[in-house]
Amino acid sequence: MRKPIIAGNWKMFKTIAESSATAAQLKPLVAHTNHCEIAVAPVFTSLRFVADRLEGSNIQVASQDIAAERGQGAYTGEVSGEMLRDAGCSLAIVGHSERRQYYGETDETVNRKARAALDAGLRPIICVGETLAERDSGREREVAKRQINAALAELTAVDLDRIIVAYEPVWAIGTGRTATPQQAQSMHAFLRSVIADTFGEAAAQDVRILYGGSVKPENIGELMREDDLDGALVGGASLDAASFARIVNYLG
Predict the structure, then answer these.
(1) Side-chain half-sphere of 45: how many Cα atoms within 13 Å?
(2) Nearest to 207, CA basis, from 221, 188, 185
(3) CA 4/CA 132 separation, integer angstroms
(4) Sign of the CA dihedral running 98, 102, 107, 111
(5) CB within 8 A of 24, min separation 6: which ones?
(6) Closest listed residue to residue 70, CA positions, set 92, 42, 98, 47
(7) Which of 4, 43, 214, 248 could serve as 178's disulfide partner, Cβ 3.0–4.6 Å?
């Protein structure tokens, strides 16, 4: 059985004090949750503070991005995987649609960042998904296949065991629109079949594929009833501790 993961992406919100306070509020609300893994992704400046606040809890810390380069070097503005580990991270979000849309990330860049995360001992959450124009033109599967194949290029089955995939239809991020559970299931199953083409059916069945796109307490239960949905990458609804706890505790 694939253990679900619910991850909260705080994006460019919350100061150090606000991030620490939200982490402290969240801890007791999910302290007894064991049906899923839990993670939060604060901004870079808050990572160490949130990690310290969550130490000893069942909540992991993820970065929202990672440098494609390893180690140290003259890469102004970048933060390496080793530095993220040092700040308390165990996961790194890679290739989020906002990084692709606003900051020119390419499929090749996403692959380099995924490999950098693995090399640093982090588990990458690799994001893929189509725009509204791509879906309306019937190209959603073509786009998802290209993105996932590029992201996993040159990786091995051993690497795959440490990788998490997040399907995030760009048209459903921050818009209030959500893919229906059936639309999400269809794309998740398709992504799993694409992974199986390269790595084999058994390995593909072990990969956890999260859904991201206007996930809320009101729709998480219905989404999680689908066979190939293994959790959620939550945006705005994760900024409030009580709201995010309701999503995490979707079983109860």
Answers:
(1) 10
(2) 188
(3) 27
(4) negative
(5) 53
(6) 92
(7) 214
Active site residues: 96, 168
Tokens of 240: 């409030």
| Helix ranges, the chain (H) | 16-29, 47-54, 81-86, 97-103, 107-119, 132-136, 140-151, 157-160, 181-199, 201-206, 220-224, 241-248
**CA distance linking residue 205 with residue 22, whole number of Å:** 34
Contact between 163 and 114 under an 8 Å Cβ cutoff? The reply is yes
- Write the CB contacts of 192 (distance below 8 Å, at least 6 apart in sequence): 204, 205, 207, 209, 228
Residue position matching structure tokens 């229906």: 180
Work out the pLDDT band at 252, boundaries 50, 70, 90: low
The Cα–Cα gap between 92 and 124 comes to: 5
What is the C-alpha end-to-end distance of the chain, expressed in Å? 20
**Domains identified in the chain and CATH numbers:** 5-248 (3.20.20.70)
pLDDT tens for each residue of 150-182: 999 999 999 999 999 999 998 887 777 778 999
Range with the poorest average pLDDT among 30-39, 46-55, 75-84, 173-182: 173-182
Among 48, 55, 60, CA closest to 19: 48
Overall pTM > 0.90 = yes
Tokens representing residue 92 in the block: 């790194």
Per DSSP, the residues of 85-146 read: HHTT-SEEEES-HHHHHHH---HHHHHHHHHHHHHTTPEEEEEE---HHHHHTT-HHHHHHH
Nearest in space to 222 (alpha carbons), one of 172, 181, 176: 181
